[in-house]
Amino acid sequence: MNVRGNRHHSKLGIKTLVICGLVVSMGACLGGEMRSARAAGPAPVARLAPRPAPGPAPAKTTLDGVYTDDEAARGKAQYNTTCSACHMEDLSGSGQALPLAGDAFMDIWEGQTMNDFLELVQGTMPQDKPGSLTADQALDVMSYILQQNKFPVGKEELKNDPDTLKGILITKKAPAASAAPSK
After folding, report:
1. Is residue 19 within 8 Å of residue 25, measured between CB atoms?
2. What are the domain boundaries of the chain?
3. Is the pLDDT reported for residue 155 higher than 90?
């Protein structure tokens, strides 16, 4: 009986050691990531997605079809040349290059305007040559990103007009339906 008890404790001890080892390893990895993030400066989300200034509500959203297929096709070519090395061909991101598709993209850009997006893309990208994209190139890349995020296509291209772009809200949320009048 004593032998069985020792084996039981021995198996329990090994399981405990393995679990503790995994927890310590995960902690070390997370600690390294946190130190890397602190060394890199403020969180990318804070840098990349400025909160909009108070003002009139945007007149359109990205659900209204604000880019064309031609614009997105030009944007894909430009993206592959200047963006895909860091943000990856599938827009999944890598390292400090944030994902440009899916929930991760929407977590950053939901509620921002297309003008906010243009200012970031044109002013800070590509990271090795910030500000080297023309407004038209940046708008094309943004159109490609919208297309890859499955926003509907429209009939007019995005225009380099800050007032118009400030009037386009990036959102995947349908506008709230107006309440039916009560009788």
Report:
1. no
2. 2-41, 47-169
3. yes
Q: What's the pLDDT tens digit per position in 20-62?
A: 444 444 444 444 443 334 334 444 443 455 555 555 667 899 9
Report cis status (omega within 30 of 0) of the bond before 126: yes
Taking the C-alpha atoms of residue 62 and residue 106, their distance in angstroms, rounded to an integer, is 12
Amino acid (1-letter code) at residue 87: H
The rounded distance, in Å, linking the Cα atoms of 26 and 111 is 34
Question: Distance between CA 160 and CA 13 in Å, rounded?
Answer: 65
Residue 113 gets which letter from DSSP?
A: B
Domain at 47-169: CATH code: 1.10.760.10
Q: Can you tell me which residue has the tokens 């002013």?
A: 123
Stronger pLDDT, 137 or 40, i.e. the higher one: 137
Q: Rounded to an integer, what distance in angstroms lies between the CA atom of residue 156 and that of residue 154?
A: 6
Cα(172)–Cα(75) distance, integer angstroms: 21
β-bridge pairing 168-169 and 60-61: parallel
- CB atoms under 10 Å from CB of 101, counted, come to 18
Question: Taking the alpha carbons of 86, 43, 35, 123 in that order, is the dihedral positive or negative?
Answer: positive
User: Can you tell me the mean pLDDT for 6-20?
Assistant: 52
The type of residue at 40 is: A
